[in-house]
Amino acid sequence: MTPRAKAKTQNNKADSAEEEARNRQETLKVLQRFGRKQGNLIPILQKVQSRLGYLPREAMVEIANHLGIPEIDVYGVVTFYNQFRLNPPGKHLIRVCLGTACHMKGGYITLDAWKRRLGINQGETTPDREFDLDTVACVGCCTMAPVTVVDNQPEGKVEPTKVDGILLAFELERGAKGQEAAQ
Amino acid sequence: MKAVESSTITSMFEEIKSQADSYWRKLVDSGQPVIVVGTATCGRAAGALDVLQTIREELERLGVDCPVFEAGCLGHCYAEPLVIISKPGYPPICYGYVNPVIAERLVREFVVGDNPCLEFVLGALEANDLVPSFDDFPRATYEKKIVLRNCGHIDPTNINHYIANGGYAALAKVLQMKPEEIITEIKDSGLKGRGGAGFPTGQKWEICRNTPGRPKYVICNADEGDPGAFMDRAILESDPHSVIEGLIISAYAVGVRNGYIYVRAEYPLAAERVRIALRQAKKLNLLGRRILGSDFSFDIKLFEGSGAFVCGEETALIASIEGKAGMPRHRPPYPPTSGLYGKPTVVNNVKTLASVPPIIANDAAWFASIGTEKSKGTAVFALAGKIVNTGLVEVPMGTTLRQVIFDVGSGIPNGKRFKAVQIGGPSGGCLPESALDLPIDFDSLTEAGAMMGSGGMVVLDEDDCMVEIARYFLEFTQRESCGKCTFCRLGTKQMLALLSDITLGEGSQADIETLKTLASDVKAGSLCGLGKTAPNPVLTTLRYFEDEYQAHITEGRCPALMCQHLIAYYILPDKCERSCDACVGTCTVEAISPNKKRIKVIDQDKCVKCNTCLTACPPQYNAIVKISPPSEVPAAEK
Asked: A65: domain range?
């Protein structure tokens, strides 16, 4: 198994039987809208992942049943493409762009900064499930290099100091929410 | 029968066109200022959505009712966010580097008041006596916009904008022509595939048309995976209808009822705008059953990729649509004879398809008059990296690299020296100064060891290490290799290991020979373009910059001061200012502290080489330097 596939399989299990049942339910709901041909596999996986946040084992089994293909074929496709994930995502998605322009303008330094601040490697989630750190090949914002995509919003010119700034903003947001809750 | 049908098509299109025209006239001739904000992904990364919101709020606060719409990318990405204001009595003016504060002022003083805020102007869109226009820019001498004709000027989410600007007229025209005539027209124009390989488009269509077998398919390849390239993204986000129109025309010429647009996963906004565009085209019967009353029916499905670089290769892309892992297969048979589900399939790039409507609307001779003898038309490039005017440019084929980089792109920022230009992404190569006078066309770039590629152009200056960039691309292709061919899977891995060693200062002379041998083996032993071209970045850097490899290997020194293992940051004691603490506060790992004389010193064990201190040190001191090899840092500091 490649390191990437291995990283993907961590935690590929629902936390409880209820969650597993819920995942199965959601998957079946998505499957109702798709025919039983293999050409639908990738759109189905995308829909299921957008609902569940990841592709748990039970979802893949249901999809294989629906399409009448071996489970390993579903798993093979899931691990082939970068966008599919086998473990639940963190609350905030941090994706560091490592396109050519971003790399040459210090994207690798930015990635180091994220790793250092979050205390995790790329492809991992912080233990409190707040942040998810990953890299992306290129988001096509080469003119704003180095770019980090924070919760699907591309941020331009992210250098180590801006990494701290973005994290601070999240912290303040959380603090404000906490205060609201306390009141 | 044909005559009756022909008049139906004309009258149906006339009706759509007149509606779009009156919509457009109401917008531009309303007597009100019209505000346009560029909100393609590049603009959004620069904060265009905040600007847009500010403008809307400010207009509402002041009780002004004037049209505001979102457009795509004008190509001047260096100055994002861009706002264009067209006010009666003034030329349409484009403002650059707009932030919410400037946006508020523009609304108050120009939209409501009468001060065009000349201090924020980037350029006017047409010649006038008040402000310089984009036509006065040096780059205007070289630029010729065919594919990018509408980008940044129209609302990509409103089909009326496209139609009012000449859109879908080519479709109405082709529906009254014979498919063979269209293929001849495209062949005569000399249009070649813009995805990189440069296969003649008309010929591809003809082969597919003449191959028996039904159903046939047409696919628009928008899986723009090259890191450093963003032309297709910008076109789909700014003018999706031009691509859709091109795809419909290709379908009619080839005789196809079903088509796909394959957009890569990393471009959610492009996919969204294509989805909207498809819906609108269907509503106006420009797509779907019996298009414009003719007996031609055609439908397009949007297919979103899932993040695999190799899916840009046509057979891998087809496998991906079939619901399989995106692994390329052996060619021939090429897709025009056996493609999607084994049926004849045409796969065309975004820019190829966007070039089709203008060719039909004008004629083949017009297109063939642009460019060089062998490469016709224009080339779209995404300029990025160490260049002043990053952004999108479209120039006729045959323009030289020097003209694109120095005249259109305004050269290298910060007074640095040009070192190389990386063309064609992971499949291309790095060309040095001596290659700058090469004309841009399919043949000459390939000869120089790079390739036309899809159009990504990353400019590198003296601070960029050529070994590191070769390593970077190898890391990329190695990771993205699908694993089918042994040489691509394992050969690139070995090459990457050798290059990594060199960037760590642990390489040996023998490594260079091994790299060269492996490179030719990987080229020979791979099925698809990914493997065949993966060694290109290594080969070109070895060809033009072998001295840099030698410095890494023999001296453990990175001449560009980039390879992190081979450099150290050092504060020059005689330049460091006692009263300044700029670097101490910004250091992200608290590795800098003052010594007894209040001269700042870096703790080399703590330093993570993040470059923050170097940018923080005020320019009047410039006390922080990078030293390579790190052993040259004075002993006292360690």
From this structure: 3-80
Pairing between strand A124-125 and A92-97? unpaired
DSSP per position, B592-609:
EEE-TTS-EEE-TTT---
Q: Which fold has domain B159-367?
A: Rossmann fold (3.40.50)
Best interface-test mutation with A: which of B306, B480, B489, B541 has the largest number of A CBs within 10 A? Answer: B306
Q: For testing the chain A interface, which of B324, B464, B496 should be mutated: the one with the most A CBs within 10 Å? A: B324
Hey, what CATH topology would domain B378-461 get?
Answer: Ubiquitin-like (UB roll) (3.10.20)
Inter-chain touch A100–B382, beta carbons under 8 Å: no
* Alpha-carbon distances, residue A129 vs A26, A46, A133, B132, B532 (angstroms): 22, 22, 11, 53, 41
Across the interface, whether the CB atoms of A142 and B425 are under 8 A apart is answered: no
Confidence (pLDDT) at B4: 59
CA neighbours closer than 13 Å in the CB half-sphere of residue A127: 1
Of B322, B326, B382, the CB nearest to A142: B382
Closest residue to B304, CB basis, from A46, A160, A164:
A46
Q: Which residues of A touch B266 (CB under 8 A)?
A: 136-140
- A113 and B586 within 8 Å at the Cβ level: the answer is no
Instruction: Please state whether the predicted TM-score (pTM) of the whole model is above 0.90.
Output: yes
Residue of A nearest to B462 (CA): A104
CATH number of B31-136: 3.40.30.10
pLDDT tens digits along A109-164: 999 999 999 999 998 899 999 999 999 888 888 888 899 999 988 999 999 999 99
Task: Give chain B's mean pLDDT.
Answer: 93
With CB atoms and an 8 Å threshold, state whether A101 touches B228.
yes
B184/B593 Cα distance (integer angstroms) = 73
Asked if pLDDT for residue B537 goes beyond 60, the answer is yes
Of A82, A104, A143, the CB nearest to B307: A82
Band (pLDDT 50/70/90 cuts) for residue B176 is very high
Q: Average pLDDT of B512-537?
A: 93
Residue B172 and residue B319 in contact, taking contact as beta carbons nearer than 8 Å: no
Q: Which helix (H) or strand (E) holds A115?
A: helix A107-118
Q: Report the b/e string of A47-72 with b at 16+ CB within 10 A.
A: bbbeebebbbbbbbebbbebbebeee
How close A22 comes to chain B (CA, Å)?
25
1.20.1250.20, 1.20.1440.230, 1.10.260.40, 3.40.50.720: CATH of B466-555? 1.20.1440.230
Tens digits of residue pLDDT in B255-286: 999 999 999 988 999 999 999 999 999 999 99
- Considering the domain architecture, whether residues A120 and A146 belong to the same structural domain is answered as yes
Q: Please check whether residue A7 lies inside any domain of the structure.
A: yes
Q: Looking at residues A61-77, what average pLDDT do you find?
A: 95
Same domain, A104 and A129: yes
Using the predicted structure, report yes or no on whether residue A4 has a pLDDT greater than 80.
no
Identify the CATH number of the domain defined by range B567-637.
Answer: 3.30.70.20
The verdict on residue A86 lying in a domain is no
Option in A73, A140, A164 nearest B230 (CB):
A140
Span B313-331, pLDDT tens digits: 999 999 999 999 999 999 8
Between CA B43 and CA B73 the distance in angstroms is: 8
Q: Is the separation of the CB atoms in B530 and B427 below 8 Å? A: yes
The interface pTM score, or ipTM, of the predicted complex is 0.88
When CB atoms are compared, the residue of A116, A137, A144 closest to B225 is A137
Binary contact (B42, A45; C-beta < 8 A) = no
Q: Which residues of chain B from 258 to 297 reach within 8 Å of chain A, CB to CB?
A: 265-268
The CA distance from B109 to the nearest CA of chain A, in Å, is 29
